[in-house]
Amino acid sequence: MPYVDRPDGTRIYYEVKGEGYPLLLFAPGAINSQVSFWGVSAISPYDYVDEYMIIGMDQRNAEKSPAPLEAPTWELHAADQRAVLDAVGVERCHLWGGCIGVAFNLKFIQENPDRVTAAVCQDVVGLVPGVNTRATFFAMFEPTVALARERGMAAVVAAALENPTFMANNAAGPFAARIAADEAFRAEALALDPVAYERIIRAYDDQLWGAHGAYMSVDESFVKECPAPLLVLPGTDDFHPTPLAERLCREAPRATCLPADCRTPAKIEGTKQRIREFLREHTSAQLLFSTAAGTDRRAVVPAPGVLDRLSVPPWAEATLRAMERPNPAPPPSRERALSTR
Fold first, then answer.
1. Which of 100, 117, 167, 203 shows the smallest number of beta carbons within 10 Å?
2. pLDDT at 117
3. Which residues touch 159 (CB under 8 Å, ≥6 apart)?
């Protein structure tokens, strides 16, 4: 399995599937943002593997990405995500984030505006007065804090061994996956004072849910100048309030908002096609821009057949077809990615 090793000892798992223009994924699942959760999403970006190079990753502390016993920041997550792109050899890409992945989208765009060509924002996570508060989000951490207080870290470790998926077993805490998989880390967790453990857990609240207001990962002022095109699929629950998605669509200069019921049985196929059209539109634009600017071809050379599915102006088609790869051979960057272990 390919990994990126980070300076603090974190190992970020990622995977690459398909050919074509790169599409970097930030999965739903809150702090369990991991590739496997796309399998239960009503619309999965892996359905677009016929047209795009899909780059999935587990965020630090999620399933296959072990990290230190400390709370992360949005900035640390963004640095991990950049490291994955660098390992794959991708300079520019589209983003697709679900749930917490929308917050990752916004932070990544803020820190790397020249590397993002478009972003799908599925179930915008954040705060809306009268709908939710930080306590709504911290509630998922309360069972592990209470368990550590009442029965000690041995009970937290036992919960992690029973079910290491935090989103399904809040009592196990956000480090459950590594506690279950890594004996040395398990011993470190057992030795931790429950008061120190609670401090780490509360730091999660401060550094993620409480960091920047409504959109969580960025100040609200940034959204009004967000340079990337956004396609927004609103959520409909307290963690993903519809009014926040509608606000994002009003304030972000290049946002397009789909209706809140866009994933109902009657509309889901049309929504899947609208996402494909959005990605194609901005893939086409990026290919043209990169050709004119002389950008590194690894990030922009289309796979065979991709141009047939893009809306390419006639004046540009000859140039782009001359660039089209004759054979779907694995790109050199993929080999480098697989050797980064």
1. 203
2. 95
3. 144, 147, 169, 171, 172, 173, 176
Q: pLDDT at position 336, please?
A: 36
End-to-end CA distance of the chain: 8
Contact (Cβ atoms closer than 8 angstroms) between residue 186 and residue 173:
no
* Block mean pLDDT (10 aa), the chain, length 341: 92 95 93 86 92 95 93 96 95 95 97 96 96 93 96 97 92 94 95 96 91 92 96 94 96 96 95 95 65 43 48 44 45 38 38
Which residues have C-beta within 8 Å of that of residue 294, sequence separation ≥ 6?
A: none
In sequence order, what are the residues at sequence separation of 6 or more whose Cβ sits closer than 8 angstroms to the Cβ of residue 304? 324, 325, 326, 327, 328
Give 3's strand partners: 13
d(CA 1, CA 229): 32
Give the pLDDT confidence score for residue 286 in this predicted structure: 60
User: Residue 32: what pLDDT?
Assistant: 86
What domains can you pick out in the chain, each with its CATH number?
3-128+214-336 (3.40.50.1820), 134-208 (no CATH)
The answer to whether the beta carbons of residues 168 and 29 sit under 8 Å apart is no
List the one residue out of 62, 1, 52 whose CA is nearest residue 26.
62
The torsion angle over the Cα atoms of residues 77, 300, 36 and 228, rounded to 10 degrees, is 50
CA angle 300, 46, 329 (to 5 degrees): 45
Q: How far apart are CA 202 and CA 255, in angstroms?
A: 33
Phi, psi of 238 (to 5 degrees): -65, -25
Give the three-class secondary structure for 66. Answer: coil
Neighbours of 256 (CB within 10 A): 13
